[in-house]
Automatic annotation (TrEMBL):
Alphabetic keyword roster: Aspartyl protease, Hydrolase, Protease, Signal
Any Pfam family matching the protein: Asp
SUPFAM superfamilies, alphabetized: Acid proteases
Catalytic center residues: 82, 280
Signal peptide stretch: 1-20
Gene3D superfamilies per record: Acid Proteases (2.40.70.10)
TM stretches of this protein: none
GO MF annotations, alphabetized: aspartic-type endopeptidase activity
Keyword Signal tagged: yes
Protein name per its UniProtKB record: Candidapepsin-1
UniProt keyword Protease present: yes
GO biological-process terms attached to the record: proteolysis
Length: 463
């Protein structure tokens, strides 16, 4: 019994010590959040691509989610991060999911009930948001939005609660432009805007590491910050362009200089591959010029089905050193062949690209993002790009001057070598009770667990 009391005292001391060495990351003007992912079956089409053909394959794709806590008391809700749209909305109609599995996944993401929140405000207005696959009708509310595992609680955030949705089994956190001129797409401040307005981050900038398909865990998104342990070389920035192709909305448009292929030590560039293109975490596939996709099909001895899916040989030892190379001028993101391929069936593989139609928006979706570390900087109107790697964690604030030239800590041996690791929610700049480092947090959790177990055991003994 004395030993049990001793262990309880040690556990309590460890928990106290761990909490005493908290490092409030958010005090430096950034907040880091883990990205989890879910694999689910869905037709192989881009979210924004209008394609009326019936796809031949339902494949496993990944959704990249973060968790928010909405209302008072907080109601946990998971939403998909989307750099291709601007609004936060929750409560998809799970009954319209495309499969039983998606229906079950939808339910586990959580639902928001305004009637159960003492801080909810119904704004008596709404909107309809169309996607290439699926549409949502939302009613606007304002409520508090807290970031789990932190003391950050954003006040009076405007968002939508779905009143009707089709073919969407996840809510969405839109991370594109909000209400700040000259790039205002909304009449209200969105999530990225509010982080700055409520003094959580210094800049309207954030970085994303999705990690590759071989990752055993999720990625990390850092609002107001960058992790130099998630890329190789120097961060290179390219300008965000204005609306293209007759669009009126501002998006993360950049100029892609060339697309090429490397195999067997030989490299080639595809003709007429230069194009303005949007970097979009909300799209599973990348939409590229039709002539480039046709050239890829020829080079890979592949084929296109009637839905435009690019059927290619599955990765083997013959393709270990093959890559597709995306040159933005000053930085090239090379995607290993095995990371650009999606397994459709046991014998069939599909390339994670599709040919653009005359009405398509050129997109670099998740099939590109998994091989890149990307910084979306609205204040400086720049996109930062570097080859993705994983050599640990080294998070820091994005300065008002941006991220151009910021050196990554990884070498080439770490490139495309696994998951991007999980982030920890930090705390706001003026928050003096910041989250602990991963080490101290783990120690605290372990000590607390030990303490709880010891106390429970002692209580039973006392009975």
């Amino acid at each position: 019994m004395r030993d049990l009391y001793m262990w309880a005292q040690l556990a309590l001391a460890a928990a106290t010590s761990a909490s005493a060495i908290n490092i409030p990351r958010g005090e430096n003007g950034f907040v880091s959040m883990p990205i989890s992912y879910k694999s689910h079956e869905r037709p192989l089409m881009s979210k924004r691509d209008e394609d009326n053909n019936v796809p031949l394959f339902n494949i496993s794709v990944l959704s990249y989610l973060i968790e928010l806590s909405i209302g008072t008391p907080g109601q946990p809700v998971k939403v998909a991060i989307d750099t291709g749209s601007s609004e936060l909305w929750v409560n998809p109609n799970c009954k319209t999911s495309q499969s039983t599995a998606q229906y079950q996944e939808c339910l586990t993401n959580g639902q928001y009930d305004a009637s159960q929140s003492s801080t909810a405000k119904d704004l008596d207005s709404g909107n309809t948001i169309p996607y290439g696959i699926g549409t949502v009708e939302i009613e606007y509310f304002k409520d508090n939005v807290a970031l789990p595992n932190s003391t950050i609680n954003l006040k009076n955030i405007q968002f939508g609660a779905a009143s009707q949705s089709e073919d969407l089994n996840e809510g969405i956190l839109g991370l594109s432009f909000g209400s700040k001129p000259p790039t205002a797409d909304l009449r209200y401040s969105n999530f990225v805007d509010e982080l700055v307005l409520q003094n959580v981050t210094d800049t309207r900038a954030f970085s994303v590491a999705l990690g590759n398909q071989e990752a055993s865990n999720g990625g990390v998104i850092i609002f107001g910050g960058i992790d130099t342990g998630k890329y190789t070389g120097k961060m290179t920035t390219v300008p965000i362009m204005g609306p293209q192709g007759g669009e009126k909305l501002n998006r993360y448009w950049v100029q892609l200089k060339t697309i090429g292929m490397t195999t067997g030590g030989n490299s080639k560039k595809y003709d007429n591959s230069a194009t303005p293109i949007v970097i979009d975490t909300g799209s599973s596939l990348s939409t590229l010029p039709a002539n480039v996709v046709s050239a890829m099909v020829r080079d890979l001895n592949g084929s296109q089905d009637r839905s435009g899916n690019v059927i290619v040989p599955c990765p083997s030892s013959n393709t270990d050193n093959a890559s597709f190379d995306f040159d933005f001028g000053g930085v090239t993101i090379s995607i290993p062949y095995r990371h650009l391929v999606i397994q459709a069936t046991t014998r069939t593989c599909i390339l994670g690209v599709q040919a653009a139609s005359s009405s398509s928006v050129m997109l670099l979706g998740d099939s590109f993002m998994r091989s890149a570390y990307v910084v979306f900087d609205q204040d400086n109107m720049q996109i930062g790009l570097a080859p993705y790697a994983n050599c640990g964690e080294n998070e820091q604030t994005i300065s008002s001057k941006g991220v151009n030239g910021v050196e990554g800590k990884c070498d080439n041996s770490n490139s495309n070598s696994g998951g991007s690791g999980g982030g920890n929610s930090g705390n706001g700049k003026n928050d003096k009770k910041g989250a602990a480092t991963g080490l101290s947090s783990s120690m605290g959790s372990l000590a607390l667990a030990c303490l709880t177990a010891c106390v429970s055991f002692l209580s039973m003994q006392a009975l």
